Amino acid sequence: MDKLVEKLRKEHDLSDDELRELIESGSYDAELFKAADEMRRETYGDAVYLRGLIEFTSYCRNNCLYCGLRAANKNAERYRLTEDEIMECCDEGYELGYRTFVLQGGEDPYFTDDKICGIVRRIKEKYPDCAVTLSIGERSRESYARYKEAGADRYLLRHETANAEHYARLHPTNMSRNERRRCLYDLRELGYQVGSGFMVGSPYQTTENLIEDLRFLQELRPDMIGIGPYITHKDTPFKDEKGGSLELSLRMLAILRLMFPYALLPSTTALGTIDPNGRELGLKAGGNVVMPNLSPVRVRKKYAIYDNKICTGEESAQCRGCLERRIESAGYRAVTDRGDVKRVRSQK
Ligand code: SAH
Q1: CB of 306 closer than 6 angstroms to any ligand 1 atom
Q2: Lowest-confidence segment of 25-29, 100-104, 121-125, 340-344 by average pLDDT
Q3: Does residue 230 have its Cβ closer than 6 Å to ligand 1?
Q4: 5 lies in a domain?
Q5: Cα 33–157–339 angle (5° rounding)?
Q6: pLDDT digit string (tens) for 132-161?
Q7: Does 259 contact ligand 1 (Cβ within 6 A)?
């Protein structure tokens, strides 16, 4: 096996120069993916964890330059699910076997802390055996503490990019990398299982930025790391920018698997959007989570963070069947239990 890949596999780390070589050269990919697959099989076997995703609001107060849900996008169709509708999604998901519900949305002030806590409590009361994950953006430490108190188990908040200047080019001036980090550290300290991550191939991203992303993740040590290719949305300031590639996305996924053997790594919808076989390839490059959509079909097209998003037409049950077949065809096994991270904090 190549020296670089072998070193990454043994030491779970490389120097910046070595990482740069691995990231910029495609010649290691075959070995890299093979080593990543072996590592995931050592730590998680052939299990692929399913998380039911409920996109419960498309309203957003933010103006991230890459995202189709940005407040300034007047063409975006906005919707909110009612608490009862969210419960119906959970009911359907529970029937399909899901034991994790991920509530994701834009940063929608309509959903006050009281409302979020009410929803979390209601889900946990009805389904105490399920994990509830929130992914609702930046809020105060006090708010995060209240959601935890109400029963939320996990929180997904991608850091997007670890570099402050790059962050500033992707976001409006009222957002900052440091505030994003504050949120992530608060969440970790409050005892959440935390997911972070970044987009691959976002506008202005350099190899150095990607190395900084890896270094930041080594410092944060999140339980889950979600990455996917940046995909252009036609109604954003980045409408003429090109999207991230499949190759680089898979390469970063494999590097993450070798650096963080115990991390939960989703093979994302964005990966499946840029290539019909993208999610299967993501699993073979070290991914071990997929997040099937549980949102009502009538709203799915409206949660348009990027163009041509897949899985917007099927019912939840069809989505479940389709994904299970894809997971099996890639050589893995779909698992619906809670699938908590197999790691203690002292481990990498
Ligand atoms: N408002 C929540 C959820 C955002 S959507 C939050 O701030 O966390 C979840 C993720 O989708 C984002 O973190 C971002 O990394 C990704 N995303 C947004 N726009 C995208 C685009 N155009 N292409 C690819 N991924 C995108």
Answers
A1: yes
A2: 340-344
A3: yes
A4: no
A5: 60
A6: 999 999 999 999 999 999 999 999 999 999
A7: no
